[in-house]
Structure formats: C-alpha cells, structure tokens
Amino acid sequence: MHHKPTSPAARVISSEHLALGRVVRELRARHAISQEELGFRARLHRNYIGAIERGEINPTFRTLMTLARGLDVRLSSIVRLCEQRQSHVGSAHPPRAEARGGRCHDDESLRSSCR
C-alpha cells in the first residue's frame, strides 16, 4: 500500500493551534469579512489566514499582533478565547464571541478587553 507523504503545512500542529484557528475563523465570521479582507487588514496573504484557521501553522507573536489588529480585538482577547475553547473541550455550550457595533465581545469576559 502506497501512502503519500503529508507535508507539514497540510496537517494540524496541535489542539492549541486548532483552537486558535477556530477563534480566528469565528471572529472573522462575526465581523462578516472574508479571509481576503482579513488578510488585507492584517497585511497577511489570504492563504496564510486560511492556514492559521486550519491550525496548520505556528504564527509568530508579530503575526498574532497584526491579526488581532485586523480583527479589531486585543491579542489578549484571542488568547482568552483560545484558553476557553481548550477548557471547554467536549462542552455542550462553549463560550461564543459576538460582534456588536463592529467590535468583538464575549458575553461577559471580553467586554473590557475589546478596543
């Protein structure tokens, strides 16, 4: 049986990276913007945004900062949501981020951390 080798960029790095990707995708969807638009706002290529959302890459701190600016949230908000996703694995109701007035809010925990 022949197996094609999987390139490192074609697989999830870790559950933490997958959680980050899900948070980025959720925040992007809440702002109703495409990967291309987020890429433009954050000065990142849309394919790079997609790879982050799929948990396939390990973005640098600088990249996470520009991504947060593109999403109009603080990096600490993204990290907090990732931590919540990790602690709610298997939970029936994980916390949800909501966009109100172009800003991201997580019901209670993120109101003070959004710009």
Defining traits:
115 residues; globular; 7% strand; two-stranded antiparallel ribbon; 434 Repressor (Amino-terminal Domain); disordered C terminus; mainly alpha; disordered N terminus; 2 strands
Account of the 3D structure:
The chain is globular and about 30 Å long. It has 115 residues and is mainly alpha-helical. Strands 1-2 form a two-stranded antiparallel ribbon. 49% of the residues lie in helices and 7% in strands. Helix 1 packs across helix 3 (46-53), helix 1 (15-30) packs across helix 5 and helix 2 (35-42) packs across helix 3. The N and C termini lie far apart (54 Å). The longest helix has 16 residues, at 15-30. Strand 1 (97-100) and strand 2 form a beta hairpin.
List the helices and strands and how they pair.
Elements: H1 15-30, H2 35-42, H3 46-53, H4 61-71, H5 75-87, E1 97-100, E2 103-106
Antiparallel strand pairs: 1-2
Helix pairs in contact: 1-3, 1-5, 2-3, 2-4
